[in-house]
Amino acid sequence: MPQQNIIDAIHSLVREGKAISTAAVKARVSGPVNMVQLLQLVSRYKQSPGSLPAAEPINAVDEPQHDASLAAKVAELEARVARLETLLTSSTALKEEQHD
């Protein structure tokens, strides 16, 4: 439900203490946004914050998979950093040898 995505984005911004603006909400929503709904919901929130339905609960079942995905990404980035450090050390050593 596209409208729920907009509502979830508004609630997400509120939880983070960020200002609710059309641009901020649009940036938070993934995928295409119905601008009419976006404008209506942002306006509705600004007039009466309690008038919006609750945010859709985050599916707890996805969290372990998400954690595993993040762990894999961290491991990949650590390996890349280690390789770059090795290349940098090699490059620095080579330059020092050339200057000697």
UniProtKB/TrEMBL annotation:
Coiled coil, from the record: 67-94
Source taxon at top rank: Bacteria
Keywords from the UniProt entry: Coiled coil
Stated name of the protein: KfrA N-terminal DNA-binding domain-containing protein
Originating organism: Oceanisphaera sediminis
